[in-house]
Design a protein that fits this description.
The complex is a heterodimer of chains A (173) and B (590).
Chain A: E1 2-10, H1 16-23, H2 31-35, E2 38-47, E3 50-59, H3 70-73, E4 78-84, H4 89-105, E5 110-115, H5 127-135, E6 140-142, H6 151-164
Parallel strand pairs in A: 1-3, 1-4, 4-5, 5-6
Antiparallel strand pairs in A: 2-3
Chain B: H1 20-48, H2 54-71, H3 74-93, H4 95-132, H5 135-147, H6 151-159, E1 160-171, E2 177-182, H7 191-208, E3 219-222, E4 225-231, E5 235-243, H8 248-263, H9 265-269, H10 282-286, E6 291-293, H11 301-338, E7 342-349, E8 354-360, H12 367-373, E9 381-387, H13 393-404, E10 410-415, E11 418-426, H14 427-436, E12 445-454, H15 456-464, E13 467-469, H16 479-501, E14 504-512, H17 520-538, E15 547-552, H18 566-569, E16 571-580, E17 586-588
Parallel strand pairs in B: 8-9, 11-12, 14-15
Antiparallel strand pairs in B: 1-2, 1-5, 1-6, 3-4, 4-5, 7-8, 10-11, 13-16, 14-16, 16-17
Helix pairs in contact in B: 3-4, 4-5, 4-6, 5-6, 15-16
The chains are: A alpha/beta (173), B alpha+beta (590).
Chain lengths: 173, 590
Amino acid sequence: MMQKKVCMLGGFAVGKTSLVRRFVSNVFSDHYHTTIGVTVEKKSVTVDDRDVMLVLWDLYGEDEFQRVRDSYLRGSSGYILVMDGTRRATLDTALALQQTALRTVGAVPFISIINKADVRSEWEIDERAIEQLRERGWTVLFGSAKHGQGVEELFVTLATQIVHAAPIPRDCL
Amino acid sequence: MSTDPHRPHRDSPSSEGYTSVDEDWTQLRTLLLSPEQTQLDELRDRLDNRAVQPRDISRVLPEAFAVRGERDPQLSTVLTPYVENGFVTTIRKSPRAIVDAIAPIMGPAIRQAIARALQGMTQSFNHSLDESLSVRGLRWRLEAWRTGRPFAEVVLLHTLRYRVEQVFLIHRETGLLLHHVAAEGAVVQDQQVLSGMLTAIQSYVRDSFGASPDQTLDHFRVGEWTVWIEQGSHAYLAGVVRGTPPETLREDFQAALDDIHAQQPDALTHFDGDAAPFKTTQICLENCLHAHYEAPPRPSALKLWILGGVMILLLSWWGVMAYQTHARWSNLLVELGTEPGMVVTVAKSTLTGYHLEGLRDPLAKDPSAMVVEAGLEPSSIKAVWSPYYSLDPQLVETRAHSMLHAPTTVKLSVEGDTLVATGSASIEWARETKRLATLVPGISLYRDEGLVTTSIPDLLERVNRTVVRFRSGLSIVEPSERATLGAVSIALGELDQAASQSGQRVRLEVLGSTDNTGPVTRNIQLSKERAHAVLVALGGEQLGEATTVITGLGQSIVQLGSTGEARDRRIVTLRATLTVANQGNEAVGP
């Protein structure tokens, strides 16, 4: 079975782990988040009638106290940028993390998801900002870890992009 | 140039309107340009028919495959389903050919796998067996019972020095699992997730201490497990070891990793998440699944010899004892068989001893005594005897003596079914015996023609007329007097038995006396001594149960013949009387 390493990136408390929990059943304790900054999970999806195992590295949310370790990103075939729609600052964090990922692993497929779609009325990230992200070439999905909305689609879409992706030189983006 | 008779003549116009000149030109052109014309025709055909010809493709197909295969994996992707279908069809159509082709590869692999499995199973079994009967094994069995763990696991924990339980081959950059093997019975978590966490931990440790990329986490220990990590250029090998492994194990890990890098350079360099090519590393990784157990303490040869000698001695002793016991049992059966008044009907050995059943005359010998005499333990023999009367002459004679209360002066003997009485007895006894003899079991007739009968008065008279004389001053019975006393003793015996049969007892007074020489006190003492000496000569206390003996005190003046000569006064006399049994009253006087 094909295996692919995928990193979950995003600001502090944007709902990365909640999205992963919606997708897989956990094996290791969340305690590892606060100790070594990562928890590894796995999930199989089917792309073009082929089974692909996503090995998900759920990284500790970046904030002013802890930075994402570049070493955890290495070898990723793709990554997911998670934002919290109710906090505008998480979009800026996602932008910075994308640059970090680009430097570390190159132009591998990635998908961004704005979490907490169930409280859309409270969002600070407006349509204009979302449009700007899409103009950058980002795939922006909306989801709710609370209700499971968009979660399956998020991982299947990324897996499909990874499988279909052809190697692209790093300096093209 | 030959002339074609079918061709139209050059000077006459043809039916199609061609002139002979035109034909000549055509013929000339054909002759001159025939090879080129052929090539032109072929080129025209190829231009007109643009479909690819198989022959053309066959010329470039191998090169085309090689060129495209180097550029990208698209060719493999396209061909894979066709190759798979063709392979399946071939297997269905001709499985034998496939078997012949892969047998040289699969045979050794299967043999190695089976040998490894058997080796592990045998090793585990041997350990469990070795420890199951020892004191240590019993202690571990108690521990297994107390902790609820399987006995084999407890043995493993106590005897294991180290065992490589799992080996992970992990891609260094991605942390993805390339291959994984585990020993039998090892607890295996999710290998893919564990591979990722192992990689993350290494990165975390390296980052935390600011180590350079070539400085790696070599090992870490958790409880009884140690995880050893060996780094390669593209992959690293992580071995989960229970116990304390030797340093040489690291060399084995490194050798295995080097082999894998040498065998799979392309797959490691261009790893894209497909771990299928690394299935071939199975054997290489399995060779790392070492296990080393504590050798059970082997008893020394001397101990074995001593143990063997003791066993042989014990067995020999047991054999001798069993043989002796059996021999004693056999002898006892022979004794019982020849013993009068005993008939053995059942004799068998049981798990706890022996069992006897039979018939026993009450007068026969005590069987318990015979068991003891045979050297056997009475408690080891359970005997059930039923009473009966034996017709054995010896027992019939004993029974006759017992039932008829024959006096010691009578001898009873059995001749066939006849009881014969000889000797002497009282008239009363002889009369009573004649009446009762045939009632004794085994006796039909009675004969007593050899029996001399005497009456009680006669016996009393014979006793009471006895006078024993002594020399002056002495209390020793003279030899000449002993013959007299012998006859008196017999008479006393007969009297005693005759009296007992008539419900009476004999009272005997022994009266000693002296002459009047010497002091009175001395004479009294001397008379006692003479009476006692006679009593001893008569047999003393052995005279009989029914006889009461009294040593009389006599003085010369009161004794028989006290008025006569001095020699007639140095005597001892007897006075027997009869009394009713249990009474001291005199019944009959002399």
